[in-house]
Amino acid sequence: MAASLQSWRFCFLLMAYILAINSKSTMATFRPSPWQLAHATFYGDETASETMGGACGYGNLFVNGYGTDTAALSTTLFNNGYSCGSCYQIKCFQSQWCYSSFTTVTATNLCPPNWSEDSNAGGWCNPPRVHFDMSKPAFMKIAEWTAGIVPVMYRRVPCGRSGGLRFSFQGNGYWLLVYVMNVGGGGDIANMWVKGSQTGWISMTHNWGASYQAFATLGGQPLSFRITSYTTKETIIAWNVAPADWQVGLTYGADANFH
User: Fold this and answer.
1) N or C terminus of the chain with fewer C-beta within 10 Å?
2) Bridge partners of residue 213, in order along the sequence
3) CB burial of residue 202 (10 Å; 0-12, 13-18, 19+)
4) So what's the pLDDT on residue 137?
């Protein structure tokens, strides 16, 4: 009897161990992509003041944790805003202006096409070109700024973020617009849902950049969010992000994040 009980206990522990390994191995962890060729320029000056705001809607990049290591993406890379928050490792390639170092930037803006200029002479962000218009401080980490434009090698890398997701609220009592910031892992978002304490999960639509919206009456309820990564397809839930007395114009933090 004792031997049978011991055998059963061993089998139980073995199965628990196997399940634990499998759950870890199936977690969606973002991995770096292969290196690819592109070109890079810069905009603004050493203060990076001209990079504030931007098409992704992150507002003050210093306050919201992005700093000066940012870039505007050409239309091809920007992907209608779904690339907002993604991170890229960039190094200058085969130019006399290159430094040996590389830098990592976050996509915070769109570099729009300039159809009045040839794609190889000023229209650097015209489709289908793959181009990074970096902040000047970020550009100066990889090349001499007087070069103006340099060939680069780039790859997607995981976004290392401290803490959880942050949700900046805009809108009114019938329309909630949420900008999602500090996204780890792939840095990007494909889908998002909101849940009040008195509702089920409400699907939010992509507005532009890193913002999602819901046309619903959600006032007076604590709010939770379900988010799916664009790149890894992993879905996480940030429970009770905002209290019942939440207000537009404020930013609320969560513990959950991608990796």
Assistant:
1) N
2) 177, 205
3) middle
4) 97
Spatial CA neighbour of 109 closest among 92, 125, 122: 125
Mean pLDDT of 11-29: 43
Q: Which two tokens stand for residue 118?
A: 């040839």
Residues 50-102: tens digit of each pLDDT: 899 899 999 999 999 999 999 999 999 999 999 999 999 999 999 999 999 99
Phi, psi of 230 (to 5 degrees): -65, -40
H or E element: which one contains 107? Answer: strand 102-111
Helix, strand, or coil here: 78?
Answer: helix
Span 101-111, mean pLDDT? 97
- Angle value at C-alpha 88, between 73 and 179, nearest 5 degrees: 65
β-pair type (102-111, 70-74): parallel
Give the count of alpha carbons within 13 A of 10, CB side only: 6
**Vertex 196: Cα angle to 215 and 57 (nearest 5):** 55
